[in-house]
Amino acid sequence: MNTNAQALASKGELGAVLEDRGFAYGLLMQAFLAEPRAEQVRYLAESGAVSLFPFGERSDLIRQGMERVGAYLADPENLTDEAMGRLRWDYTRLFIGPDRLPAPPWESAYRTEEHVLFGEETLAVRRAFLSYGLVPKAMGSEPDDHIGLELNFMFETCRLAAEAAEEGDGARADRVLRDQQTFLTEHLLRWAPEFGADVAKDAQTGFYQGMALMLTGLLAVDRATLQELLQEN
Amino acid sequence: MDNPIKTAGEHRLSRRSFLGWSAAATGTAVLLGSQTGLIQLGDGTASAAAPAQEGKWVSAACWHNCGGKCLNKALVREGVVIRQKTDDTHPDSPDTPQQRGCARGRSQRQQVLGADRLKYPMKRKNWAPGGGKKELRGIDEWERISWDEALDLVAGELKRIKGEVGNKGFVMPRINSKLMNAYGGAMTTWGVGSDGSWPQVEQQMTGGSLQQNDRLDWRNARLIVLWGSNPAWSSAGSPAYNLLQAKKAGAKIICVDPMYGATHQMLADEWIPVRPGTDAALLLGMAHHMITEGLYDKEFIKKYTVGFDYLSMPSGTDFKENFKDYVLGTHDKMPKTPEWASEICGTDPDVIRHFATEICSVKPMIWTSTPAPARTHRGEQFCQAFLTVGWMTGNVGISGGGVWKAYHSNQSYGSRTLVSAGGTGAAGVANPVFPYAGYGFADPDKDNWWSPAYEELYDAILKGQYHRGVHGMEKCDIRAIYSIRTSGGGNFLNQSANINKGIEAIRKVEFFVTSDIVLSTVSKYADIVLPETTWWEKVGTVASGNPEAIVVNKQVIEPRFEARDGEWIERELAKRLGLDPLKVHSVDMQQQFFNQIAGAKVMKKDGSGMEPLVTITDADIAAMKATGKPQQGRISMAELLEQGVYQVERREGDNFGFIAMKAFRDDPVKNPLKTKSGKLEIHCQSLANKIAQYGFSKCAPIAQYTPPEEGYETTFADFKAKKKGEFPLQLFTIHYPRRSHSTFDNIRQLREAFPQEFYMNPADAAERGIKEGDTVKITSPHGAVIRPVYLTERIMPGVVTLPQGAWVERDEKTLICKAGATNVLSGTHLTGQGEEPWNTVNVQVEKWTGETLAPDVTWPQRIML
What we know:
By secondary structure, chain A is mainly alpha-helical. Helices cover about 70% and strands about 0% of the residues of chain A. Chain A has ten helices and one strand. At the A-B interface, helix 2, helix 3, helix 5, helix 7 and strand 1 of A face helix 1, helix 2, strand 1, strand 4 and helix 3 of B. Strand 1 of chain A pairs antiparallel with strand 1 (about 40) of chain B, so a sheet runs across the interface.
């Protein structure tokens, strides 16, 4: 059986798709994994990285999100120290606390009625990570199913698939993509759209509103992309 | 749809420059910095996708102040709690009931693992040493900070304030921090919460704490009077079930309460309504009938009591002050007839007479109350009257009969302890500023203490002075509130009267630090909040409460996020304050757990005394990483840890029975009580003297009735003309199965099962145009809340109730609380021995014209200790 991905790999064209996907997952991973750092935000503004976010032509959500984040970063008022404080507070109140979290950034919180962390979902995510020898730095004390970690996993596996493609090992790239597809459908797609909607609704800054739209858009696009890549050629 | 593959590759080089995949061999990517959350295990462990492990059941703590100590077990797999179960270690029977958890205990997983656990040390954004923008407390933004920064800030403030004003500049409400004590002490708060006015009354009138007959002996009663008692809701565990066994064995059960509650539905043969704060009047009306009809037990009164009539007055007292003459109105010309009582307490005079006759004619009778009617302004008068009328029936020191109070964990469990945990072995550290226990503080005549009563804390902060017992008013300058809790409790802002005044006081101090498992009410208004572990994340503990069982809890999971236990926090602070951490917390928690197990004692089979419970081997000691000696007991350590509970098996006629005050009843000369007279003191001068020492209110040496503040009489502008005033309704507050005090209020499934409704009689609602399900506004002289109304004839007209413990949710503009926190409505009245008069509150109720309140199960989540 030969998939589109293997066909592309043999032509040396799979890497381009994987780099697009890796870039997208990597950028969002950075946005959601931890509190924003001033140098990181300023670098995003200076480098124009957000304008390079792929798949905008295929998703209204991604385009809207890119515009929102782009506008935020383009305004010099948003790059002052005071604005960095506001951005940090936005992240804190959305994802850290100490008060009620409008958008708890964990799969287990979204997939249990009681917003309980560390559930069966967390163990399934842990096993998916471990199958690639990956573990969260704070495993055991913080849940493995944080949005940033799940995006990190997608990013990391894009890199591994690209490596395989580079080496001409289409079958290995294919296996990684299948694991990604499983992870996407069994995990990210089952909660992150709802999470993204909550962030888009409750965030006070265009930065996180936009990143949430890009996240929701990316997951829908990537589901289609993986489907196409794994179709028989 | 566009083909993603065809469109891929635009801007490829630009994107690639961010990806840094050429450096892939390092295993980390360099996209926009090197921040990544996943790390690559070494090659040897790369295949670590081990097959799923089997789950293991672990005995898991349910540590709350609900009265129960039930067995909770958690199924743990790979560090994740899959589900819970409860006691299935032995067959259930009325004699030896299983210690089964309630809806709260079964929500423990949601509490410990909720998404809104406090995760990291947090600092209020606009706080700075000295206070910063103090007015923003409760509404400020927060910043995550490191443990080091947090501990440095706390230690810095403690040093600064101690340097500026000394140790009396600190207050640690309702806690006794070993760190603060070692640092030279801090003011605390004192008084009585749960027990109402009982402690001094029982101490002075009976010479000690009232005990109860053995649980199984309750089945010998022919009549049981439950006064202000609702164990089905207020005493978690088996108490209501135990009472059901007494009913099945033939006891008639009469309940006296403003509300026909869950217990009454389950047990009551008769419900006698009484207005809050007027129980003493009802009892005096009964006493009048018992005296004038000659129904009371004259032999008992003569032989075992003093002060009933002028002939039995203790020497050195005015004989006119005797109880009988007060009831008959001999000197004040006001006979306390059932009609007199009825006007006050709302109970029909014929019911009063019938009730009084019944308690004198059915024997044996158990005459039992709780502190609820004593959590009132002038609550002593209820306790005095309850004991006096109980003793008039002669039901003391006999099988199936007795006069006592029973509530919380000791409801039906108030006799001998049959199994107990050992002590932790951790040394205490005395507080130089207040070298007493704050709860039930009994030494207002001593000179070596400085601290305000619970009810006076906020005024002490705001006005700079407080009552210091016999010494009168004392000036103070409170700069900091310390609320780092090493074992829970201490949500004083939510659970003490007048939350609005409390917030005002908190916004005056310079520094307020708490530790917590979630942003509870106190922490919401703090400057620095430190994340604390729950008992599921600590090494283990042994819980006592039920005198027939101990529950042994093990660590279930690793600490979540950056949570640390309170003792670790205080040791780290000690280092920064130049103290020896081991002089603050001398024994590590593992050793404390071991000591509790090794020191556990169980009643010998013949009932003659206690013996060691647990067999411990050298291997057990090594496995616990503890120091200790092997010992011989009844159960192996491994088995105890596995079971999670040790319960003494019971049967009627076993060797563990007990009859309270039997020795005194059998021979009062040989076995006198520890009162001044050696007898039960109906006239008790030492009680009147003691209450006077606190300096708050006066208490007569006999049971009398004086209208309390915010009682029934104060609902009138003109009582004689029966013209109602501004706050015409009486509010009392109940315990509610949704919560243990304020704990668990955030749990969704509990919110759904137990909505926080305001109970009101339809007659009162109709007068106000209020319909079932309306949102109503309840206003007292101290604040206002809104809640959905539940209309029911089960509550007396003129009386309303709201369950206590909801987490205050105050609108900062209107100051109206939408959660229905009862302490927004209650006032800080100073009374008696510093008890908290939560059940004497006057309110008005009106239909809320604002937005209808959504059920609070739909509100976002918060979790607490």
